[in-house]
Amino acid sequence: QVQLVESGGGLVQAGGSLRLSCAASGRTFSSYGLGWFRQAPGRVREFVASIAWRGSSTAYADSVKGRFTISRDNAKKAVSLQMNSLKPEDTAIYYCAADVTYDGNSKHWRVGSWGQGIQVTVSS
Predict the structure, then answer these.
(1) How confident is the model at residue 29 (pLDDT cuts 50, 70, 90)?
(2) In terms of Cα–Cα distance, which of 18, 26, 17, 22 is closest to 35?
(3) CA 56, CA 108: separation in Å to the nearest integer?
(4) Which of 18, 36, 57, 71 gives the lowest tally of CB atoms within 10 Å of its CB?
(5) How far apart, in whole angstroms, are the C-alpha atoms of residue 14 and residue 18?
(6) Span 49-70, pLDDT tens digits
(7) How far apart are CA 3 and CA 26, in angstroms?
(8) DSSP string, 37-69
């Protein structure tokens, strides 16, 4: 089991930037994929970004490509999400995730562990 704690959320104006961080503990950090998901009010939780255990492979939702960057530091057991050019539609609770894999058959992301979530609000 992996324990995850997010930090760095808050309120920002449209066009601004925020950096989310997630500290992990438990299993060997470098052995699993990590990711970020988000859930806006009244909507289902959706995939935002993922990074493979080696950090060489990343994936992004179309809605954030070119604006968000995911990175990981295996020595510090941390994963970050740099969010630039934020839009009001990026407002959501953001969740850090571990043991993230993509099931090509069902076309769904599978997650082994979730953080508690952190609020990001973008004002217009």
Answers:
(1) low
(2) 22
(3) 21
(4) 57
(5) 11
(6) 999 987 679 999 999 999 999 9
(7) 6
(8) EEE-TTS--EEEEEE-TTSS-EEE-TTTTTTEE
State which amino acid sits at residue 91: T
**Residue 112 token pair:** 């082994």
Find out whether 97 and 113 touch, Cβ atoms under 8 Å: yes
* Sequence-distant (≥ 6) Cβ neighbours of residue 4 within 8 angstroms: 22, 23, 24, 96, 97, 98, 113, 114, 115, 116
Both tokens of 78, joined, read: 């941390």
Is the distance from CB of 120 to CB of 8 less than 8 angstroms?
no
**Sole residue written with tokens 């953080």:** 115
Provide the Cα torsion 11, 23, 56, 120; round to 10°: -10
* Close Cβ partners of 66 (under 8 Å, ≥ 6 residues apart): none
